[in-house]
Amino acid sequence: MKQSLKNVTIPVWNAQQHLNQTVKGMPPSGIRKFFDLVSEMEGAISLGVGEPDFVTPWHVREACIYSLESGNTHYTSNKGIPELREVISESVRCDLGLTYDPAEQILITTGVSEAVDLAFRATLNPGDEVIVPEPCYVAYTPDILLAGGVARTVPTRLEDEFRLQPEEVAAAVTDKTRALLLSYPNNPTGAIMTRSDLEDLADVVVENDLLVISDEVYAKLTYTGSHASFAQLEGMQDRTIILNGLSKSHAMTGWRIGYAMGDPALVGAMTKVHQYTMLSAPTMAQVAALEAMQKGDEEMLHMKHEYNLRRRMFVSGLNRIGLDCFEPRGAFYAFPSVKAWGLSSEEFAERLLKEQKVAVVPGSVFGPSGEGLLRCSYATSREELIEALDRIEKFLASL
Amino acid sequence: MNEILEILSENAKATTSEIAALLGRPEADVAKEIRDLENAGVIRKYITLINWEKLDQSFVFAVLELKVALQRKTGYDAVAERIANFSEVESVRLISGDHDLSVTVRGKSMKDIAYFVAEKIAPLEGVQSTCTHFILRSYKEHGVILTEKQKPQRLVITP
Known about the structure:
heterodimer; A: alpha/beta; Aspartate Aminotransferase, domain 1; Aspartate Aminotransferase, domain 2; 2 domains; 7-stranded mixed β-sheet; 3-stranded antiparallel β-sheet; 40% helix; 14% strand; B: alpha+beta; 4-stranded antiparallel β-sheet; 31% helix; extended
């Protein structure tokens, strides 16, 4: 205890008492331990990176530099620069055959991460439940909690190639369920949902009057057939919020540009939250995104082609050395099973890193149904992938 | 573009088994197709891109611009092929614009190249004029930036 100037005793400051209970209750990230281990290790190969290994194409960086030289440093409208919303509208018309009014139905966000957060905050009331397929990207559940909602996870399984099963969704619905989150192509599994898989879900969605929040950030990285969106199903466009961005498709993770598309009332509500929190996405990054969407198709396809080559080589390599892996049809992850090797995914990942210096992410980080599986990103060079396969094979031989 | 050629053009060391794995095709098929491409003269040589500037003992390169008198019947081919035969010559190209032939030459020194041009190229019948540009520094060759700085680092693990 100390005496203050006014002779009031000042208690010892305890920051913990000033934390929000929801934030306090959030578990620490499951990848932290691996991050620290890899960072200190010389010569480690990391298959744990959830972003492209390509640098943003030069013409995109150059457009941003030019924009800065021209002094283009002001806020943009809350929704984002009109030309960017127009080109997004045009692109979704081409890709999905859907029409979104750039003035009312498209919002540019600071990465898809912000769009996910906005979608929950703009639609959930306290206690509302959201169904989340699992294993899934680590942000959904915390974002739902922060919005006052409750995440109801539904497992997806290897035997279904990690596609969401309608019976499982129906079984998870309660009278408080408001929304279904979809995330395909999926991080961490690499699974996709085809149009007919999505059609099977539509009945449950309509019967329970659910809103669908569809994170499609890996849509462009679909290697077999073309990407299908829930919004394309008859009558489903209005009840679906599509979230997408340029991070994965155009190797633009650090620029933080995403977008949300949907019913004007939903996008309008998201825009309100956005305007009072983010105000607008960074102007220079929006300019770069415009260049990427207008003139970046060739590089985008080139990168996709390269991922596809690596995907074939790496997945067949995993199966050859004895890690069962179903064919991931999207994103840039392989999700092999280690169940036959008698180790938990975390033990496997930790020993693999310590003994052979290959970093992967244990599937359990992405939810309990990821147990026994590993997320291996093939967004790394062919040479590193070949070397990693060699090292994993040596590790398996030592078990 | 042929997918095998695309892979080999980026990495001449890619083995048939690596290429087969990348393309998801049987190794025997890939091996046969490569043999066919070699036999047909589509694949001419497997080369290594060397950054000579990293070595103490390096070479001098020059680009020669040649004006050539067109010859009846043989056009540019006869003189171009004569020039191509010299081992000092790395490439010979017919180009549009001010000049006719663009020739890349490799030598041990500038003097070496100067003599070569004066003795072997300039006197050739059909060569009307030469202009020698010595290459001072190479920034990019075969799509590879040679002056590349350290690669930007990604975080080692991200969700």
